[in-house]
Design a protein that fits this description.
The structure is a homodimer of 209-residue chains. By secondary structure, chain A is α/β, with parallel strands linked by helices. Chain A folds into 2 domains: 3-81, Arc Repressor Mutant, subunit A; 88-201, 3-Layer(aba) Sandwich (Rossmann fold). Chain A contains 9 helices and 9 strands. In chain A, helix 3 (38-45) crosses helix 4. The N and C termini of chain A lie far apart (45 Å).
């Protein structure tokens, strides 16, 4: 990774937009495009081109005035910055409807993530095969995550058990949690949590209706 | 709705936090609690108590110095502000794994939303019963949404068809879209879109690992 990236201290709000830029650029590349502009990206993303230029300038001027951005190069740079130029092993806890939907989701693989183990505590689910792995009992969670040195987990269990699951994950070294349970988690400062709760997104919009 | 709420112009960033406050307060109420403080909320949410006081002050001083916030009252106020003191009909497009998981999701009902119709274009899904509704063909989408005057939709279709589905929804009056497809949508200024893409959330965390 270029040193100017390592050394730069990028605001979290900017980091939050980089995956969206990466997604849009990857799509442009799939469409066979080789060059784009902050203007076109802005149009696609509903973000001002000035904002996009500013965000991308944090990595030391990609894109030359007038000539625009080389998509393939920018994609590579963003993947490096976000550390998804590698594939991360992910543990998935919860094999309900949502857990199974995530297990079947095709969108992880080519974007830096691979679900490698799935856990649940219900006897009728444990042992069943899903995609390319077998649902394991929660009691094996610590052992498996330690052995595979898994740093990222997704929680798709009911709100009541989410904090306990998070505690167990963190105890064995998980540093990033994507939490689908509709509850805020208490975690140490060095653990990152992101939340997905459709109702929070819906309620955020109804205010404007 | 109290006039001071109607008249106040609340920053979007604050609006984005209100559903999280509402969720935490509802949970406190379920735990049998009647009063809370900005300090306790801050602890639960990882937000500074000063920020919380500032956010909630936009609605004209709930919570008195020292005595804290009356949870039930604050919940009612937030529900009014976010307009979820009513139940909104929601259309769900896409009956794949994710769509089915959303259809089965129990978390909508008591938080202001009710999925009332579900659409898909695959013959093997159309007509099948799911929860309390039957999966309808995409061709019926316009008719149904007009008839039921549905304003909110969730898109759970592949990226390739998401924009076309969005266009069809907007054409018949949908004003708020929760998009699960990993693509940004182009919509008119009066249509609100929120995005849920697990990879965007995961990539946002890997930067810090």
């Amino acid at each position: 990774m270029p040193s100017h990236i390592l050394s730069s201290n990028i605001p979290d709000i900017v980091i939050g937009r980089l995956p969206v830029y990466l997604r849009a650029l990857t799509r442009l590349a799939q469409e066979g495009r080789e060059v784009t502009s902050s203007h076109e990206l802005g149009q696609r993303l509903g973000i001002s081109s000035a904002q996009i230029r500013k965000d991308l300038s944090h990595f030391g001027g990609f894109g030359k005035q007038g000539t625009g951005y080389q998509i393939a190069y920018l994609v590579e740079q963003l993947k490096q910055v976000l550390k998804v130029d590698q594939e991360w092993d992910v543990a998935l806890v919860g094999a309900g409807d949502l857990g199974r939907a995530l297990a079947h989701y095709r969108g992880f693989g080519d974007r830096g993530f691979r679900i490698v183990s799935m856990f649940d505590n219900s006897p009728d689910k444990i042992g069943t095969e899903l995609e390319n792995f077998v649902i394991q009992p929660l009691d094996d969670l610590a052992k498996v995550i330690r052995e595979r040195n898994i740093k990222i987990a997704m929680i798709a269990v009911p709100a009541e058990s989410a904090q306990e699951v998070a505690d167990r994950l963190i105890e064995v070294g998980v540093k990033a949690i994507l939490n689908y349970a509709p509850i805020n988690l208490n975690v140490p400062a060095d653990v990152h949590v992101q939340y997905i709760d459709p109702v929070v997104h819906l309620q955020r919009m109804t205010y404007y209706l």
